[in-house]
Input
Amino acid sequence: ACWITLGPTDAGVGSGLFDYLGIFGESGAFAMLQLNNGGGPGSTYAVNIETDPGGVTTHSTYQTLTPGSTYWFSLTADFVAGTASLSIYNTSYSQVGSTITTTTKTGEDISAIYIGQNQTSVDVLQTSYFENIVFAYSGQAIAPIGPTSTTLPTVYLLSKSGGNGSAATTTIVSDPTDLKA
Output
């Protein structure tokens, strides 16, 4: 879960896909928070969850958002049960629309989390900002992790490697021995 300020402008029919947050399984399952900056349903600026149940890339329903605005996104993936969900909140802590749910591949554990846009070329006018990222790497985590949750799971600080603040992407890596409460 994290705050994301959406940088890409509304491109209308000339839109692009932006993969923002991805949760990946051990053998290729994934649940990706994806922004479509204009080509969603009815050519709207919207987000969805991209998954691949049965090995076929699938898009959930879309939630229309406002370009340049900041939202709290809480993405979950349960590859054992085969479900993914996305809850979105505005800066007033009100949920935007309803929670989006979809299906995923099953029978896998989570192996990686990806942060950042990796599908469309990046330029200065399309920079999005990620803030206050929270990972709840446990089956016992509250879902969704909302900006107004009163009982949050333990938050861990992850070591940072790569990137210098000016690079297009920064990689955050950690193993269980590197977690600090």
Remarks:
- The two ends are 18 Å apart (CA to CA).
